[in-house]
Amino acid sequence: MPYFMENLSPGKISSAFKRALQAGLIREEDTAVIFYDLTFLKERLSYLSSCFPSTTLHGLAVKACPLSGVMQLTKELGFGVEAASMGEVKLALHQGFDPGMIVYDSPVKTREELEFALDEGIHLNLDNFSELERVNILLKNRESKSTIGIRINPQIGEGSIKESSVAGEYSKFGVPLRFKKQELTNAFLENDFLSGMHLHVGSQGCPLEMLVEGTGELYDLMLEINRLTSARKGYVQITTFDIGGGLPVSYSLGRQPVSMEAYVAALKQRAPLLFREGNLSLPGDTDSGSRFPDQGSRIKDQGVRLITEFGRWTYTNPGWTVSRVEYVKHDPGVSTAMLHVGADLFVRECLNPRDWLHEYTVLDGEGNPRTGNSVNPWNLAGPLCFSGDILAKGVSLPEVREGDHIVIHDTGGYTFSMWSRYNSRFAPRIIGYYNEGESFVLLKEREEMEDIIRFWT
Ligand SMILES: Cc1ncc(COP(=O)(O)O)c(C=O)c1O
After folding, report:
1. Cα–ligand 1 centroid distance for 166 (angstroms)
2. What's 334's domain CATH number?
3. Mean pLDDT, residues 79-96
4. What is the tens place of the pLDDT at every residue in 29-62?
5. How far is the CA of 315 from the centre of ligand 1 (A)?
C-alpha cells in the first residue's frame, strides 16, 4: 500500500522532527507545534482525483483544516471547498477560490447570506423547505449562476459515535427521506432551479455499507424524479449529486483504514450512473432521444456532476502534533506527563475519550524515539484549568522524562480548527514540510499576546 494511504510512522515523524530541530524551527517558546506532511497530503489528493470522474468537484471540508496555506495548496491542485458557514465561504473567496468551486452547506443561512451566495454564483445545498421557499423568492428578481441542491437525510442509521452521526431517523440536518419523500418529489417538480441532491453520512464511526447505502437511497430517488421531470418537463432535472464526506480514517498504527478504493468500488456498483462521464441516460432507457427530448441539449454532454466533501479523510493522517513534556509526576499505579496541549486543541478527545483515541510516540530531547515500556501506565495531561483536560488515560509508553516530546499522531483534521480559547493559551506554530523535512513552510505563526488581547477585546 502506498505510504500516503496509511498512518505516518514514528520513524518518519522522528526524522522530520529532527530536521525541524536542526533547522531551528522549534524555538524555546514553541512548547507545542503542529506539523503537516504536505507531500503526503498532495499524494493523497491526487489519489482522490484518480478515483472519481474527472468532472467531479471535490469540495474539501474547510472545517477540518481552514489553514490558508493548506487551502492555497489545494486550490492550486484544482480542488474546491465545502463551506459550513459564511465565514468559511468568505475565507475561500479570500483565498481566491472560484465561486463555482465553493459548496455552501450551512444549515442556518440567513436571507443576506443566501443573497450573497446567489449573487456570487456559489453552489448552494439548501437544508430545508423553508430555505427553499426563501431562495425561490430571491430568484424571482435576480439572475444567478449558482447551482442549487437540497440536503436529504437518507435515514440509514447512526454510526458508533452518536455526537457526530447525522443520518439517523432524526437529524437536525436536511429533509428526512422516509418522512418527506412526496414533498421532496414535489419540491423538484415545482422548483425548476432545484437541480441537485446532497447527503452526508458520518463523520467517523460509520461503516462503509452505511455510507454507500445512504448514497444508494438518494440515487434511487434521483432516478425516480428524473423520470418524472423527463416525462412532465421534457428534461432530466437532477444534474448534480453531492455524496458528502464521512469516510472514516484509522487513528491506529497498523490498523487497515477503510479504503477509498473499496468505497468507490461499492459506490460504482450501487450507483453506476454517478460514475459515467458525460452522459446521463437512465436505466431501461433504450431510446432516450425520444423519451427525453431535451436531454440532448441539457444533459448529454454534461452528465451528472458529482460533488464530494471529504474532510477527515483528506487532512487527518498527514498531520501530527508534538508537545514538550514540561513535568513528569509519578503516583502509585500511574505516571502523568504534563503537556502544553490538551482540551484546547483536542476538544473531542478530552470530552469524549472513549471514541477518540490517538497513537502516541515519545521522542527524547533530540527527537529520537524512546523504546520499551515503563512500569506505570501514563496519563497525558493538558495545561488547562479543569480536571477533564486529559488527552489520554492509562496508555502504555516508554519511560517519559522532563524535556522529552510527546507526538500525538493523526491530528491534521478537526483539531486546530476546533481550537478553544479557554485559559487564553497561545495557539501553536504550524509547520508544513515536504519530502520528510527536506524543506519546510511556515503555515501559521505561534500566537502572540496581541492575538489574545484582540480576541478578548
Ligand atoms: C455537510 C458535511 N459535509 C462534509 C463533512 C466532512 O465530513 P468528513 O470530515 O467526515 O469527511 C461534514 C462534517 O461534518 C459535513 O457536515
Report:
1. 10
2. 2.40.37.10
3. 98
4. 999 999 999 999 999 999 999 999 999 999 999 9
5. 12
